[in-house]
Structure formats: structure tokens, C-alpha cells
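PT: before anyone asks, these are the final sequences, not the draft ones from last week. 677 residues across everything. Please model them as a single complex and drop the result in this thread when it's through.
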Amino acid sequence: MADASLGLWTVPLAVFGGAIRVSTPFLFVSLGECITERSGRINLGLEGTLVMGAMSAYGISYLSGSPWLGVLAAGITGALFGALHAGICSLPRVNDIAVGIALMLLGTGLAFFLGKPLIEPTAARLPAIDFGWWSDVPQVRAALRINVLFLIGVAIAPLLYWAFKTTRWGLLIRTAGESADAARAMGHSVLLIRLRATMVGGFLAGIGGSFLSLFYPGSWNEGLSSGQGITAVALVIFARWDPMLCLWASLAFGGAAALGPALQSVGITSGYHLFNAAPYILTLAIMIITCSPKRTLTGAPAELSITR
Amino acid sequence: MTTEAAESVEAAGVAPAADPGFLQRYGASIEYILIPGAALVGALGVFGGFIALYGKNPLDLYFYMYYGAFGTWFSWQNTLTRAAPLILTALCTALPAQLGMVIIGGEGALLIGALAATSAALALQGAAPIVVQIAMVIAGMIGGGLWITLSGGLRQYRGVNETISSLLLVYIALAVLNHLVEGPMRDPASLNKPSTREIGAANMIGTIPGTDVHWGLVFGLVAAVAAYILIYHTTFGFAARVAGGNIRAAKIVGLSVGKLILTVCFLAGSSAGLAGMIEVAAVQGRTNANLAAGYGFTGILVAFLARQNPLAIIPVAILLGGISASGGLLQRRLGLPDASVLVLQGIIFVFVLASDALYGRIGFLKGKS
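LR: through. Structure below.
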């Protein structure tokens, strides 16, 4: 239904709308991972958490009729997966990256298993706020139909930035991430701090998953997430563990991911699959540009195994 | 092993008394079998409980799993057919692990290897089958090899984390495959399932005489043994293990770590690429989205369960090949979703990693200190 008068303007407009729509899962996962990594651990399993979140949100929303209960269920599922990750990582000589890979496989497997009966039914979706009421152009209105979760995510980013900087909790998490010994010397349990940080991280990632199944694309199927979780984990690295940079990076990613469907809507379909790979190529490109073999990244928590 | 082991062993009265040094010598090796074995049993127990919650009888589950994996000659053949690509994709994780690298992109190398092998076969239509087959092996290995070398090179020269880059490359490989089979390489006759043209029946690698198991199994066995010899019985493998143990020491003694990383990553990728070639030349006969069957991801689990040892990969791959072979039977007889195999694999993976904490801590294998 491309409006002829808009012509090629449809593409940037769809990319803009997509940046807002598609970026939400990236935003939630990257903010969650940001908290976890600041505490000195990396959770690669958020891909599995995202899919589990999407499935449980859809299931609970279908059973209860309330999408917000679904979002809550997704968050709780995510927090449980976070607790599992942190629990296994607390054992001596267990590698957090490997545990992440295991939970990635377990999460997707479990979601496909439990979600099998959910492919058919339709669950109640999350509502959107219509910010485009002033416009007559349908594409503009479509681009400005914004979900509340996106706004919540946008609000969490500066809140987290502030919390890391000024609150006691932020300081504790950063201490655990910079020097576990220092945190121990202050009389705090590093394992407990990391457990909480990973659970909060999982909670946010689960909510990111609920957005996938309850708003956009807005259904449950096994191809729902294809690497958004892992892309968001990579995104934290080049956002330098800064929640505000996570926000901008997520928006850029959402725009890149919306490129394929946007071009398809104006009839350019030849490279559809290649354009769909744009977020992964972008991630890789940014990592190549920003990483360096000689020094550790500025802002990297010193305890993080991925940068040591 | 501590020197006190022998006395404590006698005190505990567990080991063969005739040879008090037995546990001292073999305690570590016993651990490598006992602990993953216990992890496996624990995972099966949890999975049984999960299935019981789902309203099925766990004993039926175990029976059908055994029956579907190893119960009959038919199921054995099914199991071995699935084990072949698993051995090769597991090597894709196990070889870089010697250098301390965690590569999880075997699925991507498998897809690129399949595409390269198919391209070679389509380009050589009309040549003698043996020429086509050799070209497919070479193309598949080079394609997969370069794909993982990319991750290794990025790690070495740009400091990009290889775990994340190799996984991102899986999604990129999948996009490239989908693009090619729906676009430039599409066989116009493939309507419902976009695919490339077929490589031709004459060019298929066929089955081992007397069985339905294709020759890919032999490829896998040879590759695993070769990898074992390379790692444990050559200077190159020794250098790789030194670099994996302590990268600074390796640099001080003058090892060229960059070259090691690139070579090992190439070998790792070429092994997964060979798995892709086998899936094309022995099973599918063409390239399409069916190739992304998850062998690359299960291979990661195989490598970790085998503790990155190429020889141990062989029995572990057969075991996990058996689990996936029994998936069909579980679906038909117990009405379980096809994802139940994935759930079990995930649980096994979690148990295996958690069991890492047990090494050197089992009383009767270690002795009091």
C-alpha cells in the first residue's frame, strides 16, 4: 500500500518507524546485559532468555487475556534463567561464556517445546500509543504508532546511567566488575552481587522477548528471534558498557534491521535476505572498527572474561 | 595426583588391592569418564522428570530413546549417519579450544562448505564422478575453512571476540545461503522449497557396502583421528597447546601465535565445511535451507562433552547422534514435540558444564591431603 506521492521517501520513513519498533528488543537485552557485564560476568544465554520470554509472554497473555501479565511472566522467566546462569557460574572453575552457550541452546529448545501448542492461537497484544494523529499520511501514522515498552526502555537507559554513577547499588555492581577482591574486602559477596545483576539482566531480556511476541512481529513461532539476543550482547561491547550509548546503538540497529522489509515494501526484493543480515554485518563491522588487539577497551569492566 | 593417593585408596578399599598405584596412575583418566558420565545420567534424570511433568512415563521415554538410538540395526544406521557430521562440527569447536578459543560458528562453516561444494559440483557437470567428488571435498573444506579463519583473524588482528563473531557469521552464512538458493543459484524447477540444481546422482558419495550408512562416517573418523595425532603427537599440536596454556610464554619462546591461530581456525572450519559437503553429497544432493539442521550447534555440545579431545568426540558424537535419531520415535510413540531433543541437549550441556567443578574433588580418586 505504498502511497505513490511519497515515492522513495517510504524507505527512510519505514526505516525510522522500524528503528523505533525493531529496536525495542535490542534495547532491553542490551540494557540487561549491560548490568550483568558491569558486575563482571558475561551472559551469552540472553538469546535463549529472549526466546523463552517471547514464548512465556505469549502463553500467559493467551491464557489470562492480559498482555501485561504476559510481560511480567516473561520478566520472571528471564530472571529465573539469569539465576540459573549465575548459580552455575558460582561453582568453581566454570566458564561463564560456555554456560551462556548452554543456556542459549536450552532456552531455545525449551521455548520450542513448551511453545508448540501456542503457534495456532492468537493472544492479546500490547497496545500502542498513536503519536501520528496529526498526519493524514498512513505511513507516517504507522511509523509513529509507538509501543509503551519502547518508552519504558528509553526511560530505563538514563535511569541506569544515573544509577551506575550515583547510587550505592551502582557502585557495588561496578566494584564487583572492576575488582572482585576490592568488593570482598569491603565485606560484600561478589557471587551475590553478580547473581542479582544477572537476574535483573535476565528480567529485562525476558521483557525484550515479550515485545517480539506481543507487539512486533506480534505472534509466536520458532523463527521469531534469529540472533537479536546475541547481537544485543555484542552491542553492549561497542556501546562501551554505557547505558545511554546502548540506547543509541539499539536505535541504529533497529533501523538497520528494518532496511530489508522497508526496501521490500517499495518493490526491491532481490537482495531481501542480504538486507535482513544487515544488523549482523553492522555488528561485525562496528566490532572490527572499534576493537583493538593492543589494548583492552576503554570502559571495560576489568573482571570481564571476554576482554581479559 | 597426589602421592598419598595410594594409601587412602587402600583405606577406602575401593580400588583393586593388587595394584595400589592403579588410581594414582589412572585416577585422572577415570575422572574424565566418570564425571561426564555422571553428568549425562543426571541430565537424563532431570529430563525424565520434565517429561513426567508433561504427563508421560519417563520409563517409556528411556526405552524409546534406547530403542530409537541403538535398539535395532536400523536405528544404529540412523545414529551413525547423524554422528558423521557431528564428529566434524565438534572438531570445529575442539581444535580452536586447544588454543583457548571458544568458536561456536560451526553451523556457518557447514553452510558455506555446502554451498562451495555444490558450486564446485555444478561447475564440473560432465566430469568423471571421482573428479567432481574430490573437487567438492576441496571446495567445501576451503569454504568452511576461510569462514572460521575470518573469526580467527579478527581475534588476532582486531581483538574481536571470536565467540561472538563466529556466531554472527552463522546468521550471515544463513542469509548468504538463502539469498543464493532463492536468487542466483535457484533451480527454476524447485517451486515449494527453493534449492540449487542437483549435483547429479552419479556424483553422490554413496553408502558403505552392506549398510545404509554413507561414507561421510569414514570421513569423520579419519578427521577425528588425524586431529588427535595433530594435537598430541606433532610439534605443531604441541605449539598450539603451549599457546593455549599461556600465550605470553608461547610468545617468549618464539612461537608465532598469529600463524597458529589462523592455521588452527582454518583446519577447524574446513572440518565443518567437510560436514556440509557430506550433507550435500551423501544426503540432500543439493543445497537448500534443510542444511541448517543444527548439526553445527549440537557439535558444540559434543566438543564440550568430549572435553575437546578429538578421540573422545567419536563416542560422544555417536551418543548424541543416537539421541537425535530417537527424536522421531519419541514424536510418534510418545507424542512429544520435536524440540524435546533440543531440551535434552540443553540440559546435558548445563550438567556437563556444572560438573567441571567436580574435577580433582572426588574423594576416592584423589585421596586425603
